[in-house]
Amino acid sequence: MFFDASKILWLMAQPLGVITLSIAVTFILSFTRRMQLMRAILSGALILLFISSFTSLGQVMLSPLENRFVRPTPEPETITGVIVLGGGMNGHVTLARGGYELAESGDRFVEAARLALRYPHAAIVLSGGDASLVGVTEGDALVAPRLLSGLGVDPDRILVEGRSRNTSENAQFTAQIPAVRAGGRWLLVTSAFHMPRAVGAFRKAGLSVEPWPVDYRTQGVERFSIGRDDPLRAFGEFNLALREWIGLAAYRLTGRIDALLPGARSGD
Question: In angstroms, what is the C-alpha Rg of the chain?
Fold first, then answer.
């Protein structure tokens, strides 16, 4: 229920959805000659399009999420294992063509491979199933073992959790794996902007994990400015940031995390 509702609501709440709906409503209103309402709706759509495509607001919104957690330095000498969250594979393409096609967040699995080689005795947990609302795709937890094995990681070290469709389920189902439940030092690998929600969900599931952020999208010192030279990239950053902040709010309101922006300590 929560999964389906979140997918449908985001289709309408994302900037492109709001802009499209605004244009559609304005078109309908054009037959009624309600000019003031039409102007108000179009003005809102134009403002949203401008701030999302021609300013650095997306980076400004992403920066505090990415800065929330940092990797420990120096790297630990030993660990029990690595938990890698899905979202870094193009499941539709791999389902049709085979292999392992990395998506924009593919850094998650590049880092997973590096850590697997850095810690040859650590277990590697891959969490992520088919998260598509319509159609069928291949979950990352099914694709990633092919990639890691191809890079020289022993398949016997890889534990697959392929049922989860969102971050909350990543945590809940991973917590059911005996090796993870047994405790130890586990690194949690996901995109830096997604780490606060991931850490909060894993804490809620009763797991103590060590954040290991990757896939950074900002330099960490962003300020608001106007005049981006790549409007499409700016729009994507704003869309990504808005989705993550809405996700944090939804998880907090539904009790899936204990704080709107989880911090470095479990009580934060």
Answer: 20
- Comparing CA positions, the residue from 105, 103, 67 lying closest to residue 189 is 105
Question: How much is the pTM?
Answer: 0.90
DSSP tag of 87: -
> Is 107:88 a contact under the CB 8 Å cutoff?
yes
Mind listing the pLDDT tens digit for each residue in 80-117? 999 999 999 998 898 889 888 999 999 999 999 999 99
Give the CB-side neighbour count of residue 186, counting CA atoms within 13 A. 26
Angle subtended by helix axes 35-53 and 15-29, to nearest 10: 160
Task: Kindly report the three-state secondary structure assignment for every residue of 151-220.
Answer: CCCCHHHEEEECCCCCHHHHHHHHCCCHHHHCCCCEEEEEEHHHHHHHHHHHHHCCCCCEEEEECCCCCC
Q: Rounded to whole angstroms, how far apart are CA atoms 267 and 203?
A: 10
Reduced to 3 states (helix: H, G, I; strand: E, B; else coil), residue 108 is helix
Question: How many Cα atoms within 13 Å fall on the side-chain side of residue 69?
Answer: 29
Burial class (CB in 10 A: 0-12, 13-18, 19+), 252: middle
Structure tokens that stand for 151 in this block: 């890079």
Contact 205, 175 (CB under 8 A): yes
What is the distance between the alpha carbons of residues 180 and 212, in angstroms, rounded to a whole number? 16
